[in-house]
Amino acid sequence: MADDRLALTVGLGAVLFVVVGIVQLLFDTARDVWAPSAVALVTALVLAAECLMLWRRRTVIDRFRAPVLVTMTAVVVGINPLVYIAFTGIAYPAIGTLLVIVALGALVPYRWIAVILIALVNVASAGFAVGFGTDVPLGSVVLQLVKADVLAVIIALTWRRTESRLHRANDLITELAITDDLTGLLNRRGIGERGHVALDNALIESRPLVVGSIDVDGLKQVNDSHGHAAGDQVIEATGAALRWLLDADQLAARIGGDEFVVVLVADSESRLRDLQARVVESVGSLSQPVSIGWAVPRVGETITLTGLLSESDRNMLDEKRRRRHPQLDSTID
Known about the structure:
Elements: H1 2-27, H2 34-56, H3 65-88, H4 95-107, H5 111-132, H6 138-177, H7 188-205, E1 209-216, H8 219-226, H9 228-242, H10 244-247, E2 251-254, E3 259-265, H11 269-284, E4 290-295, H12 305-324, H13 326-332
Antiparallel strand pairs: 1-3, 1-4, 2-3
Helix pairs in contact: 1-2, 2-3, 3-4, 3-5, 4-5, 4-6, 5-6, 8-9, 12-13
């Protein structure tokens, strides 16, 4: 959506420069106005090409190409009023130059690129004012440039502050979207997003990983006997027992009413076993018993988070049945 708005903004800029070029050529009575008009139309073509690139091939503009593209666009736009002054000899009032300075401060997101370009526009404008002469003192020209510079700085600082607040708000919204309200652990969406990343990284780095499914036994009886508030307290206590995993760069989530999931990654098998033992110890100390099932990736098999979650869930259900009916195990034995 943000890319669509950017493409639309650049496209509107292209239309604006087409209008400027045509109107300037038809109605501006200054000498040699054809040159700045031609530059305005070329600028429109450049912006139209960028609009098409943003709309159709967004992946082309990565974090390495973006500064180059922004700088080229700013230079093309910024040269327009300077070409006008150079060919018409009208250095004051340089409204176009002042607008370009403000636009550079507002639209160029790279601070030092914006500063350098604004400084170059200032120097060029003052130089043209000296070379071509104006009806006002040079000090008045410089004062107008300084006013534009100050306005550009104010707009840039305001935009940076607004952008920072938007980033923080987006981060907060993202965090809330993947967080379980009752426990503070990840929710189903959160474990889906971060679990896939953890699994992929573990496979790439050849690090051992295990997925665990945890189910609180007898939660329905707690709710029926003592009310849902008591059941919520059991859920909160289980979440608190697993929250240390998040601080240890591990993953823990509540994916349903009484269902929890952990994804553990370690540098060695022994460290992974230690993490598993600590999880068992943490939930084993709760007042309400739990059932746990584990699943580990197997060499030669297709490994997916969904598959590991399904396997750990089956193992957890087997564990729950054994806990409820221990005589079945003895019968089988």
